[in-house]
Amino acid sequence: MPTYTANPVMFRNRPFSFILSILLIPAGGIGILILLYWYLSCKATSLTVSEGQIYLEEGLLSKSRAEIDCDSVRTVKVYQSFINRIFGVGSIEIYTAGDQPEMLVKGLPDPNEIRDVIKGNKDGV
């Protein structure tokens, strides 16, 4: 099984915030700082599905890493607003047990494909 990795995206996830940040660049460079922070936070979050495991890694300087075995996944929820559906992004919630999601990642590209990869890994495909 090949490894599938996804990071949250910037423009497609929040297009109006992106445009506003671009418009704020002439206003003292505030837009550049916002875009830089946003870019680093997107690159600092990574969801990887590999060999029957799901990994969520967050952080640049200090790292936080969560791991779930695909066999213990009970439910994978995908949420997409109308704008998210147009741009092909969404949020993923992964449940193992209980009512709270074990993992929640917002702004991922092609969330339905990620759900299919997780389900395929769970089924042993």
Structure characterization notes:
This protein has 125 residues and is α+β, with helices and mostly antiparallel strands. It has one domain (4-122): PH-domain like, CATH 2.30.29. Helix content is 33%, strand content 32%. It has helices at 15-23, 30-43, 82-87, 111-122; strands spanning 4-6, 45-50, 53-58, 64-69, 75-79, 89-95, 103-109. The strands form 2 sheets. It has a 4-stranded antiparallel sheet. Strands 5-6-7 form a 3-stranded antiparallel sheet. A hairpin with a 2-residue loop joins strand 2 (45-50) and strand 3 (53-58). The model has no long low-confidence stretch (mean pLDDT 89).
CATH class: Mainly Beta
- Taking Cα atoms only, what radius of gyration do you get, to the nearest Å? 16 Å
Sequence of strands across the biggest β-sheet:
1-2-3-4
Low-confidence parts: none
| Count of extended strands | 7
Tell me the structural class: alpha+beta
Largest β-sheet summary: 4 strands, antiparallel
- Report how far apart the termini are: 8 Å
The 3D shape can be described as elongated
Helix content: 25-40%
Looking at CATH, which topology would you report?
PH-domain like
Name given to the CATH architecture: Roll
Helix and strand element order:
EHHEEEEHEEH
As for the number of domains, it is: 1
How many alpha or pi helices? 4
- Strand composition percent: 25-35%
- Report mean pLDDT, rounded to a whole number: 89
Q: Nutshell version of this structure?
A:
The protein has helices at residues 15-23, 30-43, 82-87, 111-122, and strands at residues 4-6, 45-50, 53-58, 64-69, 75-79, 89-95, 103-109. By secondary structure, the protein is of the alpha+beta class. It has a single domain (4-122), classed as PH-domain like, CATH 2.30.29.
